[in-house]
Design brief:
binds nicotinamide-adenine-dinucleotide, 7-stranded mixed β-sheet, Aldehyde Dehydrogenase, Chain A, domain 1, Aldehyde Dehydrogenase, Chain A, domain 2, globular, 6-stranded mixed β-sheet, alpha/beta, 37% helix, 22 strands, 516 residues
Length: 516
């Protein structure tokens, strides 16, 4: 295996050894870059620079697309079962390297090692789905729609496709996209986040080791310039983007202007409703785990708890008990519940949101701002924060904070609570906590949010199902993964076919063909 980044975790420091320089991955191999064309990668647990990452632009995107375009015809024509065999081998390799991959995620992102391992395993589900994709690619066939004429559908690949992915799931989110694109017969250029490159680089290396042909899976690192080059590239047919709404809207609007199929999966502000009949201990566990897990840097985190009736008064002390016991520290240290924030600037932005919440009049019950880790004071750590009496007029209610900040909102009735969720501009995931099956049933029908949990706080659908939000949490018609992922990454062809008996072609007729 070609390894371009060394695995080192925990309390690493930038010592005498020169920093490793990551490279783009084009046509099955790393592409060397000059140090002056790179930027820093940090270990957020120490605040130290641990590697340099290339800042790619149009030339690198052009090279990756050229490789993907050259690899496409042969990959498209590779029998489905042979493609599937590559995926079975890839699945085994990712499974075997799951701990290494998780350690790289923890090192670059900061989330705890068990959480990172969970991410890899949830990503694997989509690789497993891809192994069995031949059944999903079957078409429909109708014999004898006219004399000697049969009709059928088939699904073919689009060509060169691309994925642009965020920092917060460097393994799982790319794995929700490229296995389906590739298994459908496309080739792909991945533009991952520059903050968390280790796990993505390892995926490209494992794909090669599994027998994935050169040029089928390429990686270009970079920011705006690389994204603009992808969005405008005439040889890219489709892009799936995952990240913030502002960038996702730009990718959607510019990409569609350039004739591409685009799916953008964007920001979120998820709310869970708590009814007075809920099991409050279970609900407190769920709220704290969902709100603060991965330092709140999950698009499915429930960051608003809408407490109906007296449930807020009963839930709050239970949440406080649990918050008191949380351990914040380096993600590789056993027993930690939460690691650092992924970047220094983002930590500052989360602190600014807490300041704003105080200024807006919400009650700050727990203040995570003063937290400094005792042995790693330069790490980007932040304690957890809890607001109560958050109201819909407040910006901390309306906007995504993407940090360990939970807000309790009080609602008089179930209807008022559902009304709040349905009026919100974001609609990614939601949940209801109740012991009343009838209320849960109504909620599933009445709530305008596509991913719903019933006594489940992070309702990420199983890997063979689609994943996607609505309103400003998703721009485009189809969700990603699952059945929608297959539809997104294929073109359906409708074939009408005649095999007349030899010598029995009829008389010439200019009449519009009928069905006789
Ligand atoms: P981001 O929008 O900053 O970055 C996403 C991608 O776009 C990255 O590859 C990044 O390099 C690139 N990018 C960033 N700024 C750009 C710009 N100005 N022009 C062009 N490209 C740019 O998002 P992030 O901070 O990496 O990730 C967090 C966001 O992702 C949150 O809003 C979160 O809700 C969202 N997210 C959504 C889902 C979902 O499925 N809906 C899943 C995970 C994360």
């Amino acid at each position: 295996m070609v390894t371009t980044i060394s695995l080192s975790t925990g309390s690493e420091t930038a010592e005498a050894a020169p920093l490793p320089i990551l490279s783009h991955w084009i046509d099955g191999r790393p592409v060397e870059v000059l140090p002056e064309h790179t930027g820093p990668v940090y270990n957020p647990a120490t605040g130290q620079v641990i590697a340099r990452i290339p800042r790619g632009g149009a030339p690198e995107v052009d090279a990756a697309v050229a490789a993907a375009k050259a690899a496409f015809p042969q990959w498209r024509d590779t029998p489905l079962i042979s493609r599937s065999e590559v995926f079975f081998a890839f699945r085994e390799l990712v499974w075997r390297h799951r701990e290494e991959m998780a350690a790289l995620i923890t090192r670059d992102h900061g989330k705890t090692f068990p959480d990172a391992l969970g991410e890899v395993v949830r990503g694997l589900e989509t690789i497993e789905f891809a192994c069995g994709l031949p059944t999903q690619l079957a078409g429909l066939m109708t014999p004898s729609v006219a004399t000697n004429v049969d009709a059928f559908t088939l699904r073919g690949p689009l060509g060169v496709t691309a994925a642009i992915t965020p920092f917060n799931f460097p393994a799982m989110v790319p794995m929700w996209i490229y296995p389906i694109a590739l298994m459908c017969g496309n080739t792909l250029v991945l533009k991952p986040s520059s903050h968390t490159p280790g796990a993505t680089q390892l995926q490209a290396e494992l794909w090669k080791e599994a027998g994935g042909p050169d040029g089928t899976f390429n990686i270009v690192y970079g920011g705006r310039e690389a994204v603009a080059a992808i969005v405008e590239h005439p040889d890219i047919a489709a892009i799936q983007f995952v990240g913030s709404t502002a960038v996702g809207r730009y990718v959607f609007e510019e990409g569609t202007k350039h004739g591409k199929r685009i799916g953008s999966f964007t920001s979120a502000k998820n709310a869970m409703i708590v009814l007075p009949d809920a099991d409050m201990a279970l609900t407190a566990d769920a709220a704290v785990a969902s709100g603060y897990g991965s330092a709140g840097e999950r698009c499915m985190a429930q960051t608003l708890v809408i407490a109906v009736g007296d449930s807020g008064d009963r839930l709050r002390p239970l949440m406080l008990e649990r918050i008191k016991g949380l351990k914040v520290g380096p993600g590789m240290e056993p027993g930690m519940d939460m690691g650092p924030i992924y970047a220094k600037e983002h930590r500052e932005s989360v602190i600014a949101w807490i300041d704003k919440g105080v200024a807006e009049g919400a009650e700050l019950v727990v203040d995570g701002r003063p937290f400094v880790h005792p042995t790693s004071p330069d790490g980007f750590f932040l304690g957890v924060s809890l607001f109560d009496h958050v109201t819909p007029e407040m910006q901390i209610y309306q906007e995504e904070i993407f940090g360990p900040v939970l807000g309790i909102v009080r609602a008089g009735t179930y209807h008022a609570a559902v009304g709040l969720i349905n009026a919100h501009k974001y609609a990614n995931g939601t949940a209801i906590f109740t012991t009343n099956g009838g209320a849960a049933r109504r909620f599933k029908l009445e709530v305008d949010v596509p991913m719903i949990g019933v006594n489940v706080p992070i309702p990420v659908p199983a890997g063979y199902l689609s994943f996607g939000g609505a309103k400003q949490s998703s721009i485009g018609d189809l969700a990603m993964r699952g059945e929608d992922g297959v539809r997104f990454f294929t073109q359906q062809k409708m074939v009408t076919e005649r095999w007349p008996d030899p010598g029995r072609s009829g008389p010439l007729s200019l009449v519009f063909p009928g069905n006789s």
